[in-house]
Amino acid sequence: MKYLEMSKAELETELAREKAIYDSFLARKLKLNMARGKPDEDQLDISVNMYSGVPSPISEDGTDCRNYGLLDGITEAKKLFADILEAPAENVIVCGNSSLNLMFDTVARSMIFGSYKGATPWMKQERIKFLCPVPGYDRHFAITETFGIEMINIPMTPEGPDMDLVERYVESDPAVKGIWCVPKYSNPDGYTYSDETVRRFARLRPAADDFRIFWDNAYVVHDLYDDADKLLSIYDEAKAVGNENIFIMFASTSKITFPGSGISAIVSGKENIDFIKSIMTVQTIGYDKMNMLRHVNFLRNIDGVRAHMKRHADILRPKFETVLTAFENELSDLPNTSWTNPKGGYFITLYLDSFCASRTFELCKSAGVTLTNAGATFPYGKDPEDRVLRIAPTFPPVDELKLAVSVLVCSAKIATIEKLLK
Ligand SMILES: Cc1ncc(COP(=O)(O)O)c(C=O)c1O
User: Quick one: 130 and 7 in the same domain?
Assistant: First the structure.
């Protein structure tokens, strides 16, 4: 029965029932974790062959990968990322083990040197603002917060960020210098930007000429189902309207091969790429080419990547479905409660009734289930309605996940009934 249709007495009975279930969880002294967006061990195992049989350390263009050289990466790794990210290889720089590091560096570079050759450094400008689609990725927000950049919440929709609002801010306020985007299987909703959204991004005419879109394509090939979401190429769309320096794209193989031991890439228009390289060449002589070689040797090409990602999907699908089935069965009667149903990526978002997320989080924590902090998916850790919980189903084994979700749905029910009874 829907909670909103229950009398006070019925709600009290329901609360007592859920509390008894909760007490039984407490007695089990659980230690479970649904906070970490990490691959599980089986996923890591499917890439171990990368370490066997790299035939030669010499890359396609004759470079000895054991030695210094090639700032922007080996030719075959550039081609691989070009195919994955749908842009020409000459617009790709292949880098080290983390795309987040590249995003941090891109903000730092813009603060210190400006976002293009000859631009005024952001830190010499009076006020700097970033648009932050919410809920979003906490580590993006941590970067902008660390540099003292003011963050403005932009509501997410299943089509992407609210583009009317994005256009209004970007095209009227010269203090707005950037926007964080995770365009495919967004963290944490799992939404993919619609064609219209990508086109509107590509056509932005910012009030600030040093504005850039930070296009974090972290989940570009991370489909769970054959009828995968399709994302338009921002490179093609921006190029078509002569605006290819409006975006800087980031990606990595962190969740293709090994997080922390993969390879990463930047893609952008020629002017941005040349400018980035002009600073990067002072930062480093070059990234780990042996790792690039290992990756290309193992993944081969875009078809190889897709086949490999199907193996990840086979491991992940049952985990996502475990969570979604539990939500469907247990949370459908709760008011103002919904969840996303992504076809890929690493997360599901649970939207509870307002002012129920922190209480649910605390109840889970006391029962030994760790979730991503309530509020973490918002700038400054503040979810104004205290509604959002990010669920990361990938890391725990299915049996642990089932148990953790049972604790979560029980906690969500308790928090919601307590609120209704207030
Ligand atoms: C949206 C998003 N971007 C970037 C990263 C981190 O990427 P990397 O390992 O390449 O630094 C993550 C990891 O969870 C992520 O969710």
Answer: no
Unique residue bearing structure tokens 């210094």 = 68
**pLDDT for res 271:** 98
205-214 b/e (C-beta count within 10 Å ≥ 16 → b): ebebebbbbb
Quick one: pLDDT at residue 52? 85
> Tens digits of per-residue pLDDT, 260-280?
999 999 999 999 999 999 999
Establish whether residue 141 lines the binding site of ligand 1, counting it when its CB lies within 6 angstroms of any ligand atom. Answer: no
Host domain of residue 182: 54-300
Smallest CA separation from ligand 1 atom 12, residue: 218
Q: Is the peptide bond before 188 cis (omega within 30 degrees of 0)?
A: yes
CA of 100 to the centre of ligand 1 (A): 6
Reduced to 3 states, what is the DSSP secondary structure of residue 78? helix
Give the closest residue (by CA) to ligand 1 atom 3. 218
Q: For position 197, what pLDDT does the model report?
A: 98
Question: Does ligand 1 lie within 6 Å of residue 100's CB atom?
Answer: yes
259 in Cβ contact with 37 (< 8 Å): no
Number of domain units in the chain: 2
pLDDT at 47 over 80: yes
Q: DSSP of 116-166, one letter per residue?
A: STTPPPGGGSS--EEEEEES--HHHHHHHHHTT-EEEEEEEETTEE-HHHH
Q: Which amino acid is at 100?
A: L
pTM (global) more than 0.85: yes
Give the domain-ending residue among 252, 276, 300. Answer: 300
Testing ligand 1's pocket by substitution, the residue of 38, 139, 222, 258 carrying the most ligand atoms inside 8 A of its CB is: 139
Cβ proximity of 186 and 156 under 8 Å: yes
For residue 102, report the distance from its CA to the centre of ligand 1, in Å: 11
State if residue 35 touches ligand 1 by the CB under 6 angstroms criterion: no
Query: Are residues 152 and 248 both part of a single domain?
Result: yes
Distance 259 CA to ligand 1 centre (A): 9
99 C-alpha to ligand 1 centroid (Å): 7
Q: And the tokens for 112?
A: 């210190």
